[in-house]
């Protein structure tokens, strides 16, 4: 559903900013292309349709790209809040039984070592 919405927004509003942070951000077209590029990497890292992929990321353009890519491969998005403490993040990842964790570099403390963790943005 998210993937379809982003694809439609890219088609209809491709040059319009999707998410602004400090007055700038990627267009819908850029988000769509970045998600399309990211999706195969997720499958190479072992995430498949029906899996849960945890997003341990700050809110913003990168989160939108990652969530769209996860949706494109048919996996379920589990957003893990960046504001909770490391032990809580780790418990949340374990609770959702994530097949893959996409994380911002500053949010990896305490993540379970037995999970596949991919740093998207540092």
What is the subunit arrangement here?
single chain
> What's the β-strand tally?
4
N-to-C SSE series? HHEHEHEE
Helix content: 40-55%
What average pLDDT do the residues reach? Answer: 91
Can you list the strand order of the major beta sheet? 2-1-3-4
What is the CA–CA distance across the termini?
28 Å
Largest sheet: 4 strands, parallel
Envelope shape: globular
β-strand amount:
15-25%
Low-confidence stretches: none
- Over all CA atoms, what is the radius of gyration? 14 Å
Question: Helical stretch count?
Answer: 4
Q: Find the structural class using helix and strand composition.
A: alpha/beta
What does this structure look like?
The protein has 122 residues and is α/β, with parallel strands linked by helices. The chain is 43% helix and 16% strand. The protein has 4 helices and 4 strands, in the order H-H-E-H-E-H-E-E. A 4-stranded parallel sheet has the order 2-1-3-4, sandwiched between helices. Helix 1 (2-13) packs across helix 3 (61-72) and helix 2 packs across helix 3 (61-72). The longest helix has 17 residues, at 28-44. The chain is globular, with a radius of gyration of 14 Å. The chain starts with a helix and ends with a strand. The mean pLDDT is 91.
